[in-house]
Amino acid sequence: MELLKEDDEGFTIRWPDAHVSRYTWKWLALHIPGMKENKFAPKYTTKLWNLDLMQGKTPEVGYDQVMDKSSMAGMADLTGNIRKYGFCFVTGTPVCPEATKELIETIGPIRQTHYGGFYDFRADMAKADSAYSNEALDLHTDTTYFTEPAGIQAFHLLSHTPPSSVSDEPEDNKLGGETLLADGFFIAHRLRLERPDSFYTLRKVPVPWHSSGNPDVAVVPDQPYPVITTHQGFFHQIRWNMADRGTMPLDVNHIMFFRAMRHWDFIMRRWNNQLRFQLEPGKVLLFDNWRILHGRTAFVGDRRMCGAYIQRDDFISKWKLTHYDREEVIDANTTQLVGAGMVDKAFVRDNTGIPEGDRVFPLFSLKGRTAIVSGAGAGIGLAVAQALAEAGANVAIWYNSNKQAVAEAEKIEKEFGVKCKAYQVDVVSPEDVERAVDDIVGEFNGRLDIVVANSGIGWPNGAFIDGSAETARKVMAVNVDGVMWCAKAAGKHFRRQKKEGTTLDGKPLDNFLTGSFIATASISGIIVNVPQMQAVYNASKAAVVQFCKSLAVEWTGFSRVNTVSPGYMITEMIDHVSPAMRELWRDGIVMGREGRVKELKGAYLYLASDAASYTTGVDLVVDGGYSVP
């Protein structure tokens, strides 16, 4: 995919097949589900760069303009440049710490850290940090070890004089100390295009950052954070500092992580991705520490620097208030979208596509699509996996303890000529679920079309009042939480695919109207299993139905969400049920018998396919008529 043009109205791209598309920002804001038109969004206000894109120009503004109290134009230029490019120079600044400090404080209060507030230092190792040396510093971001890293950073070179000893002077008379800048968002962008697997690794794997160089300091954030953080589809923050990275935990896939780190480093070190220059007295550099990586070459001589950190929130506030009316800013901060996919309390018109053609059989084809089915080692889940594979889908089947799923996957692959692989996944763990979904998408042609959340367990303890709290929690965790975590992980891919129209590796996404999320509920969610005592199980299935109905509205435009509620089916879950109880079941079933799992295949295939393109928020009951009387 090639960006041909980007302007204030939108952008034009050329797809790999040479097709050219034009998108306006307004159209995108209306058609990206769950996103309101927001003039403050990074898409409207930032510009990624490398040397080729900068074309030899760097953003700058005059000191007198910024400090002019009669006009906000200079401050608007300064904050606008930092927001757009991630950095800006302030020229003509008086060469003294006092003027530099005053300049910084016009943006916001100076942030205090264990290094102090405003800094004025030389390379004397007054602090146990390589920044206080004359050594080369690799590209990095500062304060990765804080829960909230420093926002804006300022540098002002006050002086740089040759060494006092003639023998220490470099032969080329250059003192060194060249500053390096790189756009972390651009590097992340290139990584996503060139190595999507590594991009998602650095976005997902939490890194244990820490600061322990000074004897009286041992700072760590509230939790490990990944290298790349995104928000609503946009780059939000980069943390990159190998000197601050702690030992990676054992449960991380170290091969994938360090491979991803190498890929990032390789892109970062390309000559045209690094801006190199000498800082000058009177020319202050301010940059966004959440975005811009900075470094320097080694130097000799006496080099005096001053500067400070500013909280990012203070900078964002100043940027907004120098570009927009205060009422606009407050309204954007407080006025929420009424509902996902809604504008002015009405659903966006025509937010989903219509299948091509008029013949019915092609609508049921899943050829080339990717499906995930949880709880697929046997029973309903296995039958569903077989049905989707028969319709042409590549299928990933999940199991918890039933390792027969591995053999079943091999059978499916051989019988239907599709890709099928078994994965052991704990659906109760959101981290395990998300990791599995991401891995599968990476392995299965970079796309995700269908997810069937089928994992579930029964209630074996009789009356709720006599049952254990532990069992109740487990039933709710598997039956409800498991569905939610599957939905959360799948929805991110459905939303991205609808938004970007590409597979994970940037190829055009063919044959994708919307995603399809299907959860297995039960008639137990709409009836009471007299004379069985199943209050917790029934509540869990009712929760699944209502969760999916609500999700169908939230996911307007990028995924259909439905449930299937089977009746009494012959599966391994009824092995413990007495013959007498099963006779009572049959007495209440209009068709006079229990169902077979193969009789559910059609229901799931319908909801998974384009045959159900106009079906969402539905609970499809398949119970032989049990719930009719």
Automatic annotation (TrEMBL):
One of its GO terms (biological process) is carnitine biosynthetic process. InterPro entries: NAD(P)-bd_dom_sf (IPR036291), Sc_DH/Rdtase_CS (IPR020904), SDR_fam (IPR002347), TauD-like_sf (IPR042098), TauD/TfdA-like (IPR003819), Trimethyllysine_dOase (IPR012776). Residues 63-309 form the TauD/TfdA-like domain. The keyword Metal-binding applies. Its cofactor is Fe(2+); L-ascorbate. Pfam families: adh_short_C2 (PF13561), TauD (PF02668). GO terms for molecular function: iron ion binding; mannitol 2-dehydrogenase (NADP+) activity; oxidoreductase activity, acting on NAD(P)H, oxygen as acceptor; trimethyllysine dioxygenase activity. The keyword Signal does not apply. Keywords: Carnitine biosynthesis, Dioxygenase, Iron, Metal-binding, NADP, Oxidoreductase. PANTHER family: BENZIL REDUCTASE (PTHR43008), L-XYLULOSE REDUCTASE-RELATED (PTHR43008:SF13). Belongs to the gamma-BBH/TMLD family. Belongs to the short-chain dehydrogenases/reductases (SDR) family. NCBIfam families: carnitine_TMLD. This is TauD/TfdA-like domain-containing protein.
